[in-house]
Amino acid sequence: xxxxxxxxxxxxxxxxxxxxxxxxxxxxxxxxxxxxxxxxxxxxxxxxxxxxxxxxxxxxxxxxxxxxxxxxxxxxxxxxxxxxxxxxxxxxxxxxxxxxxxxxxxxxxxxxxxxxxxxxxxxxxxxxxxxxxxxxxxxxxxxxxxxxxxxxxxxxxxxxxxxxxxxxxxxxxxxxxxxxxxxx
Length: 184
Hints:
Order of helices and strands: EHHHEEHEHEHEE
Structural class: alpha+beta
Number of strands: 7
CATH class: Alpha Beta
Strand content: 25-35%
CATH architecture: 3-Layer(aba) Sandwich
Number of helices: 6
Helix content: 25-40%
Strand order of the largest sheet: 1-2-3-4-5-7-6
């Protein structure tokens, strides 16, 4: 007899998931924005970077791996991650990172109603496994300096602050921490 693990299935995204990824991105991206972010700036970023067409491109890119939390039965996705397997070209990131080869945890978003249920931890665990399987010794991410919830989550999962970078949002730039962890 095999035990059933409660919660959504954590699996690699497929081409069929492009629309569902865009939908979950639209409702989760604003959760990571600082309180000063306008709805217009958030909506514009989503439209320009997280539309269905963007996910179709990401899903065919051999340098990206997308993982989804799928509750099944046609329900919307609970969350997703996007792993970028190539080195960052951002000079602030390059200067901050200590572990090579590295991968970027570019996206890690979970619906608000799934926060605290272990979905984020399950998505992250699968994503870390994927990074290791693709040869990375470390993984990094950027998160807004005002996003205390995300910072606590990443700290709990072994990430440490190693630097700062800027993130273009709307007409201005936001300050992000660069967080990194080994994949040993």
